[in-house]
Specification:
162 residues; alpha/beta; seven-stranded mixed beta sheet; 22% strand; globular
Length: 162
């Protein structure tokens, strides 16, 4: 498979998982977390699904399209392992969805980062919250959820906090 085909499958899986979870979350309240702004495409998609007022974005350095950058109140800059532990003071325990697109191309490093983040992320999630992730997670109390029909197992992951 070409790298382009792999990219298309990954972002299609990402979109389909987020769309499925958005359907499940209709009528609920709470914040949305986006880890990794990148060029802003996924943030823009999350805005279309949930509105921008409750989406907090964690990013090391902004390099996104100007139309896809959250306001200063909703942009949390810096190393995620430094900013995430203090996010509870800013966001509270009101998170209903966290989208973690943190893969770096180094599988071992990405898995390590996901495991480190999950300790702090779990403290922000309310019961019934979802985590949509490009990395597999093994967190006590997070239950793997069915993927959309067209998403291959292992391509993307959906968890729900029990």
């Amino acid at each position: 498979m070409s790298r382009l085909d792999s990219f298309i499958r990954r972002v299609s899986a990402q979109r389909d998982c987020l769309n499925q979870v958005a359907e499940d979350l209709k009528g609920t309240e709470g914040s949305i977390l986006e880890f990794g702004l990148g060029n802003g495409r996924t943030y823009d998609h999350l805005r279309s699904l949930f509105g921008a007022e409750d989406i907090y974005v964690f990013e090391r350095k902004v390099n996104a399209h100007p139309d896809c950058i959250p306001d200063d109140e909703h942009l949390i800059l810096g190393d995620v392992l430094e900013t995430l532990p203090t996010a509870k003071d800013r966001i509270g325990r009101s998170v209903r969805l966290a989208h973690c697109d943190i893969g770096t191309g180094d599988k071992e490093a990405s898995l390590k980062l996901a495991a480190q983040m999950s300790v702090y992320l779990d403290q922000l999630l309310h019961r019934g919250a979802y985590v949509v992730s490009d990395q597999p997670q093994e967190v006590e109390g997070w239950e793997a959820q069915p993927l959309p029909e067209n998403v291959a197992p292992g391509r993307y992951h959906i968890y729900r906090k029990a």
